[in-house]
Amino acid sequence: MEDQKIQEARETMDVKHLCKVLYEISTLLNTGLDRETLSLCLNLCENGVNPEALAAVIKELRRESASMKLSETNPAVTASGSNGNTGGGGSTTASLSGG
Q: What are the TM regions of this chain, as residue ranges (predicted)?
């Protein structure tokens, strides 16, 4: 019983250390992901989400967010006109499971 608790404590420490290291790498690579978002991305990948598709979705969401912010400050710019995308975002989202 005691050995099981010790093993669980070690695993918890290992996971926390791994998360810290991944966050440091993420910061060095200027991903702009906070700890919570990085953790969510890691969980998605562990559950079978294609990492490249996930990255593409995150980039698209950032583009859309920037476009929306730009259109709020400059109403003459539209969301569809600022990034050249004519609506292909659904196919990226559909490919997240890699299948």
A: none
Identify whether residues 53 and 42 lie together within a single domain: no
pTM above 0.90, yes or no: no
In this structure, the dihedral spanned by the alpha carbons of residues 86, 91, 94 and 95, taken in order and rounded to 10 degrees, is -140
Token output for 66: 């920037």
First to last CA, the chain: 42
The pLDDT confidence band at residue 38, using thresholds 50, 70 and 90, is very high
Which amino acid, residue 8? E
What domain range is 16 assigned to? 1-47
Could you tell me the two tokens for 19? 């998360």
Radius of gyration of the chain (CA): 19
Q: How far apart are CA 83 and CA 18, in angstroms?
A: 36
For 79-92, how does the pLDDT look when each residue is reduced to its tens digit (9 = 90+)? 455 444 444 444 44
Q: In terms of domains, do 97 and 53 share one?
A: yes
